[in-house]
């Protein structure tokens, strides 16, 4: 799992690669253990558990780009509809020597962007109409380079898998409990006792699994945003334009109605900037993104290095 891909000029990031490998290894262990607990506690339901886990995982991984597009209200657009957007992505893909992703636009006043997909050949980069209205061409280029670096580094696929496993834990638990209750009615007392124990233990195990996977993905998410900022600044050679876009987008998002922000918050890990109001101060441990100050400080250092 390379953090720059074999066919891209985006700067490689060994720190990101190491974190992606570690996160997937730990989450893999976590879910193997979780599946084992379910199989032991609900012996009769194990075929359903294995089938459900395998089927949903493959579906999510294979169709992650389309699922995310639909969830965020994005639609594919042509070069004729958005010539500047396509032209900028064309130039960046040629500069980075990477395949061009599908291009989409979401009709949303919140200025933001995201990228998703299982690999660079099957990915999508989406911007909102609010972002297109607010940014200058150089700022838009910085944001798009940031999103393309997520695709090139393949951390989008890792976040998609890791995030989905948390959702999967809840779904499997509900179905497993339902199977246990439905099959427990016609059994003897010993089996009823086992079912009762399973109904207590499984939700507790599920909560622990979800909490650990949540923290692991948050740690990776914050680092990958810094890595994408670095890669975009180095590719374009204009860290100041990206810093300007960050400042503008963050300030404008804070002015968006709280109701609209709450609808977008489930997808914060995928966005260029988190959908948070000015009053919301999420704990750094639970945040999907580094603080604006951290991101601007890093871009300032890159700007100084490029100046030298």
From TrEMBL:
Active site, per annotation: 147
Nuclease among keywords: no
Cofactor note: Binds 1 zinc ion per subunit.
GO molecular function: metalloendopeptidase activity; zinc ion binding
Membrane topology, as annotated: Multi-pass membrane protein
Domain Peptidase M48 residue range list: 81-301
Required cofactor(s): Zn(2+)
Transmembrane segments annotated in the record for this chain: 21-39, 45-63, 156-177, 197-216
Pfam name, any one: Peptidase_M48
GO BP annotations, alphabetical order: proteolysis
Signal sequence interval, chain numbering: none
First-tier enzyme category under EC: hydrolase
Enzyme Commission (EC) number: 3.4.24.-
Any single Gene Ontology cellular-component annotation: plasma membrane
Subcellular location: Cell membrane
Alphabetized UniProt keyword annotations: Cell membrane, Hydrolase, Membrane, Metal-binding, Metalloprotease, Protease, Stress response, Transmembrane, Transmembrane helix, Zinc
Binding site for Zn(2+): 146, 150, 225
Family listed: Belongs to the peptidase M48B family.
Protein name: Protease HtpX homolog
């Amino acid at each position: 799992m390379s953090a720059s891909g074999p066919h891209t000029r985006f700067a490689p990031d060994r720190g990101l690669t190491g974190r992606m490998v570690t996160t997937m290894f730990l989450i893999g262990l976590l879910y193997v253990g979780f599946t084992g607990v379910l199989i032991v506690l609900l012996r009769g339901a194990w075929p359903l558990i294995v089938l459900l886990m395998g089927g949903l995982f493959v579906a999510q991984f294979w169709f992650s780009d389309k699922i995310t597009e639909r969830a965020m209200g994005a639609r594919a657009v042509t070069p004729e509809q958005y010539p500047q957007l396509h032209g900028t992505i064309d130039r960046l893909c040629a500069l980075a020597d990477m395949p061009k992703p599908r291009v989409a636009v979401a009709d949303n006043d919140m200025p933001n962007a995201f990228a998703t997909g299982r690999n660079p050949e099957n990915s999508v980069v989406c911007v909102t109409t609010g972002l297109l209205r607010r940014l200058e061409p150089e700022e838009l280029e910085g944001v798009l380079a940031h999103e393309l670096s997520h695709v090139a580094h393949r951390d989008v696929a890792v976040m998609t898998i890791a995030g989905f496993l948390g959702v999967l834990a809840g779904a499997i638990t509900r179905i497993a409990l339902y199977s246990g209750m439905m099959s427990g009615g016609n059994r003897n007392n010993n089996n009823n006792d086992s079912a009762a124990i399973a109904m207590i233990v499984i939700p507790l195990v599920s909560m622990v699994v979800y909490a650990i996977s949540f923290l692991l993905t948050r740690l990776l998410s914050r680092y990958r945003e810094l890595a994408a900022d670095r890669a975009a600044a180095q590719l374009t050679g204009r860290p100041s334009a990206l810093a300007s876009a960050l400042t503008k987008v963050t300030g404008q998002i804070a002015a968006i109605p709280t109701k609209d922000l709450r609808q977008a918050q489930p997808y914060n890990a995928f966005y260029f900037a988190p959908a948070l109001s000015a009053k919301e101060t999420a704990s750094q441990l639970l945040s999907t993104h580094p603080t604006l100050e951290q991101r601007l400080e890093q871009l300032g250092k890159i700007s100084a290095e490029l100046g030298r």
